[in-house]
Every structure is written in C-alpha cells, then in structure tokens.
Design brief:
3 helices, three-stranded antiparallel beta sheet, single chain, mainly alpha, binds iron/sulfur cluster, 103 residues
Length: 103
C-alpha cells in the first residue's frame, strides 16, 4: 500500500511538473459551487488520475497571497500525506493545493 501510494504520488508530481493545466479557477465561493465540482469528480472513473487533477485544479505549490496549501486544509491527513476528501482520495504533498481547499 505504501509503495503504491508512493507510485501514485510520483505520478501526480510528474504530471504537474510536466505542466499539466488544471482548472485552478473559478475557486468555489459557495457550497453550491463546491458541490458542483464534487459532482463532476464523482462522474469520473476513479482511476482517472489526470481528470481528477484537472477538475480539482491541482497545483504543486501553495496558492495565492495567503499561500494556501494542503497542509492547512481540513482534508489533509498529515501522517499519511493523504487527501481524505472521498472524491479525491489521493496522496498529496503538504505544499500542494487544489481549489477544494477548506479549513
Ligand atoms: S482538498 Fe485539495 S487542498 Fe485539501 S488536502 Fe485535498 S488536495 Fe489538498
């Protein structure tokens, strides 16, 4: 499991480093907008990693003037380096970010 997560983490890191363009904006300002993104994610094949990254607006660095990042997000599990949002459920680095960020 740990090595599988490591391989997935690397696959995500590589796609982002290669310049994958993701939907960073619009940031969901309301619960309705947030739910609409979740709905799009639920319609994906759960193995379609690239589409998950694109729809959720992944970045491999902190975002905006507040430097938001996974580490301070309510879905981040520090010890597993894991995003626990069910629609994502992927390993993530603490300095990454996506537009589903919440505190
Ligand atoms: S929801 Fe986004 S910002 Fe939050 S932990 Fe998951 S990937 Fe990181």
């Amino acid at each position: 499991m740990a090595s599988e997560n490591g391989a997935t983490l690397k696959a995500i890191a590589d796609m982002l480093a290669d310049g994958l363009e993701t939907q960073v904006e619009p940031f969901p300002e309301t619960d309705k907008e947030f739910a609409e993104i979740l709905l799009q994610l639920r319609q994906l094949d759960t193995k379609d990693l690239k589409a998950k990254l694109v729809i959720s607006g992944f970045l491999d660095h902190p975002y905006g003037p507040d430097r938001q990042r996974c580490l301070e997000c309510m879905y981040y599990l520090v010890h597993r380096k894991w995003c626990d949002l069910p629609e994502l459920s992927v390993p993530v680095e603490p300095d990454w970010w996506c537009r589903l960020w919440r505190i």
